[in-house]
Each structure stands twice: as structure tokens, then as C-alpha cells.
Amino acid sequence: MDRRKFISRSGLAGAASLLPLGALGRSNITPGCHRPWRETSPETGPVFSGNPPSGSRKFKLGLQLFTVNDDMNRDPLGTLKAVQAMGYEDFEIYGFDPEPVTYYGLEAARLRSSLDTLGLTVSSGHYGFSTFFDAPEDRMRWFTDRCIQGALALGSPYITWPWLAPDYRTAENYRKLAGMLNRIGEQVKAAGLGFAYHNHGFEFKAAGEVTPYELLLRETDPELVKLQMDLYWVVHAGRTTPQQLVSEHPGRFVMWHIKDMDTRTRDYTELGNGSIHYPNILPDPDASGLEYYYIEQGGNFASSPLESVAASAAYFKEHVQGYFE
């Protein structure tokens, strides 16, 4: 679909977006790189078509499960069924315990079996690397190996470093982090998986001559360390834009986090309730190297996490999803 037409036509999905996935019908999308098909018009440039050629893949509607973390801890399988009925098909997982290699208390193999039965996938996970930041290198390698075991058991192609604890946010430690990311990326790549770093807002605050994010972009190997762009935090920080980042570092942002910003507090909020108008700020998926995206809301729920992710899914399908088709 032409993006200029998308912006004007994005309100047409309407009532269909509120139906459970089963009522809409399921596609036979397989895990992997779900980049949208595009053709090029000499007059208008890239045109996104609603009629891709046979065999092409579309993006799955993704959810970062930290959004419904309490529900997942209480009833992981029931929660997965509930969000599936809202239209979510793919997940970024949370709740990892490295000692028994479990997620939300479930053995990775058992969780994978349940996901397969439901026709759902896990394409990435947020893992607690920051806990091992000052640990001996062999402990970080041990933890990374456990993450690899879990990801392989789930059939998840990516492992993601999601957070750096406040005590470590110094110019010296960001340089240390860059080397650490390269080493972990090498270990993960050797296992046949991809590794990515997820940003917040603190990476865009000055810490020496360049921002930490600029340093990480410069000193990590693009072949070993991909990037998961949290679009909310890029907008929140205000130093650059998602489109500019992709323009300067094409092909590196393989995953996106999509969430809205409360107009008053600038906290998280449901999609459509805040100040981020996604049709205006989304980068080109192909230029980004995008493979997966996830809706997320880390808190500030209007009523409950499940009601919030339902509202966000409905808004996304009506106003944003056409951008990826």
C-alpha cells in the first residue's frame, strides 16, 4: 500500500480489528524474516502493495510479554490464549530463569510445545545480562549459554540485551559495554542465533564527547550486534528520530518496540491515547532491516494490562498495521 494512501485510509479496518484472530482467519506465516514486499514506481518511489507475489511473507502482530508480566506469572498459557484472541501471533518473551532454563516457571520445551499447539511463535527474548555486568567473564559466558539454550528450545531467532542498570551508566562503562556486546554477539552467532541491544532514553544523554548510543553504534560490530529500536524512547529523548537513525545506520534495526506516550506525564500509555502519531515517524521497514516488531506498554495502564493490550491491538490494526502491508 502507498504510504500516502495508508495515512488517509488507515481508519477503514474498523470493526474487523476488534474480532478475535480465529474469526479473521490465520495465515500460514512461518518464523523468519517477515519483510514486506515492495515495488518501486519511477514517479513516487517505494510503493507498498496489498497484493504481494505468491510466497512473500507479512509481519506478524507482535507483543512484548513484559506488558502482561503479572498475568503471565499467574497463568502463562491462559494469558497467551487471551492475547492470541486479540490478534497477537508473535512474542518477545520475558520471565527467564537461567538455572533451570525456564520461562514463567515453565520448562522451555514445554512452553514451546504449547506455543506450537496454539500456532504462536517467540522471535526474541529480553534476558538479564545487566546482572552479570561486573561478574567474571566466564559467568557472563555461562549466562549467555543458558540464554542460547532457552532460545533454541523456543525456536527464537534473537536474544536481546534489554537494560543497563543505573549504577553502570558511566562513559567508561559504556565503552566496556560495547566490547561486552561484541563478545556476546560472537557467542550467540556461533550458536546460529542473532543478538541485539535494546535502547531506553538514557543512552541518548551525553556521557563524554558522544552520547552512549553513538558510542555503541560506532564500537559494536554490525555483523554481531543488531539493534532493537524502542521508538517511544527515541521520541522521548528528543535528540534524533527513528527515521534519522535508520538513514544513518541502514539494515541494523532488525526489531522495533512500538508504544505511545502520555500527553501529560510522558509515561507509557495505550496506542492512540498519547502523543506519538506513528504514521508520521515510522522509518522504512526495508531500510531498517526490520524483521519483527512488538507492541509494548511497561505500565500506566488505563484499567488492566490485558485491557490495555487489547485496546492497543485494535488501534494498531486500524491505524498503523497498513504501513507494513
From TrEMBL:
GO molecular function, one term: isomerase activity
Keyword Isomerase belongs to the record: yes
All residue ranges annotated as the Xylose isomerase-like TIM barrel domain in the record: 80-282
UniProt keywords, alphabetically: Isomerase
Keyword match Ribosomal protein: no
Transmembrane spans: none
Signal peptide location: none
Cited Pfam families: AP_endonuc_2
Top-rank taxon, per record: Bacteria
InterPro entries (alphabetical): IolE/XylAMocC-like, Xyl_isomerase-like_sf, Xyl_isomerase-like_TIM-brl
Protein name: Sugar phosphate isomerase/epimerase
Organism: Robiginitalea biformata (strain ATCC BAA-864 / DSM 15991 / KCTC 12146 / HTCC2501)
